[in-house]
Amino acid sequence: MEQKQKSELTKTLILNESFKLFYKNGFKTTSVDKIMKTTNLTKGAFYHHYKSKKELGIEVISAIVQKRVYDGMIRPLYQGGDALHLLESTFSGRLKSFSLYDKQHGCPMNNFINEIADEEEAYQIALKRIIEEWKSALIHLLERGKQENSINKDISNTAVAIYLISAFEGVRGIRKLYNDDLILDHYMCGLTLYLNQLKP
Amino acid sequence: MEQKQKSELTKTLILNESFKLFYKNGFKTTSVDKIMKTTNLTKGAFYHHYKSKKELGIEVISAIVQKRVYDGMIRPLYQGGDALHLLESTFSGRLKSFSLYDKQHGCPMNNFINEIADEEEAYQIALKRIIEEWKSALIHLLERGKQENSINKDISNTAVAIYLISAFEGVRGIRKLYNDDLILDHYMCGLTLYLNQLKP
DNA sequence: CTAAAAACATACTATAAAGTATGTTTTATA
DNA sequence: TATAAAACATACTTTATAGTATGTTTTTAG
């Protein structure tokens, strides 16, 4: 195999297994040893490709987590159709797509934010990038809705975007505490109420 | 000094110092050694009063964290006056009360939820108790508002309560990623919009 | 005042952690 | 095909961790 390809493959393998373990057990309690055991490689390989666990964490956030949020919550926002309906279907569709495992372990991004964001500025920057991308997509959609007269022109796009993101991330954490999805139903009910008032 | 009093004092000391360190550095990365160093006591004292770090964690949640949320976000809801105004002033007042340190480190409860809630059912139960107490207070206030005709009778109290809590906890995490309070202003703007629509 | 129990202190064990030093194998290149 | 460099493996160091075993001091109760 070509060297560059092999190298990329190994890095991707480490990245994917890391994400899984971080999601399952948290960042701090996942050791480099544990990660490399799941890859069937050794520590030597790890420190050949990454200079530290911190660097790995940042790459997991920038590559895996960012893509996950993008695919699930951002890309759908750029579809056509009624803006408010698109908002509701994106949020509710995402919730419905979650497995039990996903619900029990919450949002990977939110987990990172609350576990390690206040420890290293580099983590903050990587995580902020995801939020900003999400926020921009929401603002863009809200603006389109205003131009199509399906959204009240008086509301602040940014404020609504922040409130939508906050509530979604918040409920992903709170759901961890419960053993059923009723809390998500209530969240969706509250969201629908919120979206309703955005009408002109 | 009386033995029981002394014992209580020591437990409280350990509890308070633990909370501070958990809040500052996270639960997992705060060792029993570090805690006992700040109390000027030793490991022997710790394991005399607590059977494990897990037991300590649960007591910190049940005692310190619960009281903190109660004082800041729950007790104010039982005041008199217009329900919607009380909601807005409670949420905005709490945000304004936060020090820079508080903003940078987020919500202690939310940090626990996202760092360790999915690891032990005992943590879930202790944390859920706080959410439930908060939810009840919100529902109670919303119901009062309905009876006083200051809140629309058609809305679901539970749904609104969950959405309010979710958004607040969410933004406490997101604020960690930013270096200014603009994000909180946007959140407050989004919240005001939400509360407005609850009018009859 | 004395025995016992509670409140601590000291010293230790066992394990796990991040990272390093130094090897060996594989691939590319001249 | 020889050589260098990249890709890994092995063995190690240092430090930290939760928890234990066993001491000493203080307080209580008889």
Largest sheet data of chain A:
none
Subunit arrangement of the protein: homodimer
Q: Give the percentage of residues in beta strands of chain A.
A: under 5%
Rg of chain A is 19 Å
The CATH homologous superfamily of the largest domain in chain A is called: Tetracycline Repressor, domain 2
Question: What's the average pLDDT of chain A?
Answer: 96
What structural class do the secondary elements of chain A suggest?
mainly alpha
Descriptive overview:
Two copies of one chain form a homodimer. Chain A is mainly α and 200 residues long. The first copy, chain A, folds into two domains: 1-50, Arc Repressor Mutant, subunit A (Orthogonal Bundle); 61-196, Tetracycline Repressor, domain 2. Helices cover 75% and strands 0% of the residues of chain A. The radius of gyration of chain A is 19 Å and the shape is elongated. The model of chain A has no long low-confidence stretch (mean pLDDT 96). The interface between A and B is large, with 51 and 51 residues. Chain A binds a DNA duplex (30 and 30 nucleotides) through residues 1-3, 6-7, 10, 31-33, 41-45, 47-49, 52-53.
Relevant terms:
homodimer, 200 residues, mainly alpha, Arc Repressor Mutant, subunit A, Tetracycline Repressor, domain 2, 2 domains, 10 helices, elongated, DNA-binding
Lay out the secondary structure.
2 copies of one chain form a homodimer.
Chain A: H1 3-25, H2 32-39, H3 43-49, H4 53-74, H5 83-97, H6 100-105, H7 108-116, H8 121-147, H9 157-174, H10 182-196
Chain A binds a DNA duplex (30 and 30 nucleotides) through residues 1-3, 6-7, 10, 31-33, 41-45, 47-49, 52-53.
